[in-house]
Description:
10 helices, six-stranded parallel sheet, 27% helix, 16 strands, alpha/beta
Amino acid sequence: FAGDEIYITAIPELVGKTYGDALLSFNEASVIGLVDPNGVAQINPKPATKIAAGSKVIAIALDDDKIVYSGLRKDIAAKKIAKKASGKSKPEHLLFIGWSSMGRAVVTELAQFLPTGSTVHIVAESRHVDPLELKALKFGKNIKVTFASVSGDIDELIAAASKKKYNEVVILGYREAISEAEADSQTMLTMLQMNQLFEAKGNGVEPTRLVAEILDSRKAELARVAAVDDMVVSDNLAALLIAQVSENPALAPVFDDLFDADGASISVNPIEAYAPVGKPIEFAQLVAIGRANGESVIGYRTLEGSKKLASSGVKLNPAKTAKFTPAKGDGLIVVGELRK
């Protein structure tokens, strides 16, 4: 419960105004949605959505007493902002090393919004996963799924990872086949091997993102040492989510909407799509630009700050009056619709 959290609160001053107005009406809170008078949560509704009596705002703030209506920023709200071009998304290519029921759940969700032409290649050890199970996998028409059943030899993994330029490599533990400790040890060894491979050979202009599943959160710090730039997914995420919902059950539909493949999702988009690099910009202006594109802006991520640890470059819910100088590689964190 440290840092910013999601709160749901009534703001009488917003009645009769729009959701777009709400986005620019709080200096120390980032609005991400509304709860209508019937108690139905709407994450990132259209900016023109009217706020009726009895509605509440869903906002990210340091504390609930920070959600203070500071008045609509008319100086920014009145400016005409051109929508950013929504070019066609390029196909993405993902490599999964290791497999389990978690892999099936992840790819099922991903398949719903991956651009047409995307590919998923699964490499799993035959001693842990039946090749017939992999052969039977189908995840819709948008993506092509291929698989390789291997012995676990490092040369086989290198051959799979070197086959094409992957956007992302996902390493999963064999959670149903071996012990938790064995699965995590194997995951960390694979992380090191993949990092060495990409550092030695490179992977084109765009770096490959490495995402690893660590089953025992006590090993998360060790995994970060093994692969500093990689995001480690652990049971901490589930524990934190359960703690939030147990403290405030009203957050359950909010998380449901954010974490499923339908509806609104959290994205980190290239900052260049919103503002020129090298020029200071007030965060309220970035919120207004996001609003013009149907998005709720909640923060930014700097490339420089993320080099040592991914989360250290993230700044959630800065004050609207705070200024930020974008640099190449930075990203704007938004809540919006995922588009194919």
